[in-house]
Amino acid sequence: MSEHKESSHWHLGSEIRNVLHLTVYFGVWFTALNLLLHETEGRHGLPLEAWGFAWIKAAICAKFLLIGQLLVPMPDVNKTRLWSPILPRSLIYLLIVVVLSFVEEGVRGAMHGESFVHAMAGFGGGNPLHVFALAWVYWLMLVPYLVIAGLLAAPMASE
Fold first, then answer.
1. Distance CA 152, CA 159 (A)
2. pLDDT digits (tens, 9 = 90+) for 1-35
3. Does 105 reside within a domain?
4. Considering the entire predicted model, what is its pTM?
5. DSSP single-letter state for residue 124
């Protein structure tokens, strides 16, 4: 019984570490993107509110990805079979990140007196090409994580 308890504690600790690592990974990306957008749009002051939302979105994304991996574990990934398991998964996770980004914009707008839906429509400046560019960058940040996670989860090949 105590062995099971120790195993459960180790597993919980491992999950907490995974959430923290993935939150930091996404948080750094999201804050960098928010700073880039802030400066590109010529806004004044430090985007502290945007950075706060970036870290919240990072934590939510991390949890979604880890729950997704728990429910549907990463299939075997190797050098010859890399993209077939990762590409569909990356597109599903990308959809989650984009939806969370729209929701974030809606909440931010609602905090400033705008209607939630109107603020969501303003995501990416309301420019579909800008939204596509952001989605592409989001996908580029997801893929390395999924490749590494897939390769680490793959059984070690004997030499």
1. 16
2. 455 555 555 666 777 888 899 999 999 999 998 88
3. yes
4. 0.75
5. G
